[in-house]
Design a protein that fits this description.
about 150 residues, 1 helix, 4-stranded mixed β-sheet, globular, alpha/beta
């Protein structure tokens, strides 16, 4: 009886430890992986002369339903321009902060604002402080039109 209790007690302790370790997976509000942007996929645009334009809807190297580049690293205080070029607007590709079904994912205070204006084709967003700022196209996020701005 005493041996069975000791084994059960140790097994219970192991379950508690494993549960604590795995319950936080994927919920890191700042450093987690969002919108399928793995560390190796981020394009470094921290240099002062680097282009920080993210194209969408066929503009700036994107396809109709993608952002290009999707995963970008910039320095604190730098700006990123989301551009649909001459043919796409935020009315067709509504920009929104966060991940699909979770506008609050990522670092608090995401400076990316929700844009749905059909006349607006371009917006420039300044990122004043470090963090991880995911964004989506509300109409096409389920098909992979998502991305992240990582600010160092």
């Amino acid at each position: 009886m005493r041996v069975r209790f000791a084994v059960t007690h140790r097994l219970s302790a192991l379950v508690v430890v494993l549960s604590a370790l795995t319950s936080s997976c994927g919920t890191d509000a700042e450093g987690g992986s969002f919108n399928d942007c793995a560390s190796s996929q981020f394009v470094d645009r921290t240099a002062a002369s680097a282009s920080r334009t993210i194209g969408y809807g066929g503009a700036s190297g994107s396809t109709l339903f993608t952002y290009s580049p999707r995963c970008i690293t910039i320095a604190a205080g730098q700006s990123v321009t989301f551009s649909g070029g001459a043919t796409s607007s935020f009315g067709v590709h509504p920009l929104s902060p966060g991940v699909l079904n979770s506008p609050r994912a990522g670092t608090a205070g995401n400076p990316i604002q929700r844009l749905t204006d059909g006349n607006m084709r371009e917006v420039t967003v300044t990122f004043p402080s470090a963090g991880t700022f995911p964004y989506i196209c509300e109409a096409h996020a389920s098909t992979g039109m998502t991305g992240v701005v990582r600010v160092q």
